[in-house]
């Protein structure tokens, strides 16, 4: 039964992304992402790379992300999410906003989600691939980064 709902959810998200032209960048900050907004608008930015066909992404978004969004740490940095059609290809040029393409190029990002990259002033502070690294790598890096602000 759960598998059926999961598959229906994945199907719905896939259809929705096709119908909406796969709008890929969203600001998860309180204000909508302005056309001229950049990753440098706040000193520290967490970039989340997700894929429509990634069940690990959906699981993280369902079980962990709500706690993260309500956390004290979240309020102290910018949070940007990029959504790709498939976890097998994260190179799609039009998915990456101009101010974040340097991350893809510098880290040679090609595939694999969920992925988080913590940046400050065009410097990569931390990177994590996979839900198991959210807690052991990314959260401690976020705490260190915002503690130094």
Features:
149 residues; alpha+beta; Glutaredoxin; five-stranded mixed β-sheet; 5 helices
Account of the protein in words:
Strands 1-3-2-4-5 form a five-stranded mixed beta sheet, with helices on one face. The radius of gyration is 15 Å and the shape is globular. The chain has helices spanning 2-19, 55-63, 65-69, 101-107, 132-147, and strands spanning 25-27, 45-51, 78-84, 115-120, 123-129. It is built from five helices and five strands; from the N terminus they run αββααβαββα. The chain has one domain: Glutaredoxin (3-Layer(aba) Sandwich). The relative contact order is 0.17. It is an alpha+beta fold and 149 residues long.
Radius of gyration: 15 Å
- Class computed from helices, strands and strand pairing: alpha+beta
User: How would the global form be characterised?
Assistant: globular
CATH architecture label: 3-Layer(aba) Sandwich
Q: Count every helix, treating DSSP H or I runs of 4 or more residues as helices.
A: 5
β-sheet strand percentage: 15-25%
How would you summarize what this structure contains?
The protein has five helices and five strands. With 149 residues, it is an alpha+beta fold. Strand 4 and strand 5 form a beta hairpin.
Topology:
Blueprint: H1 2-19, E1 25-27, E2 45-51, H2 55-63, H3 65-69, E3 78-84, H4 101-107, E4 115-120, E5 123-129, H5 132-147
Parallel strand pairs: 2-3
Antiparallel strand pairs: 1-3, 2-4, 4-5
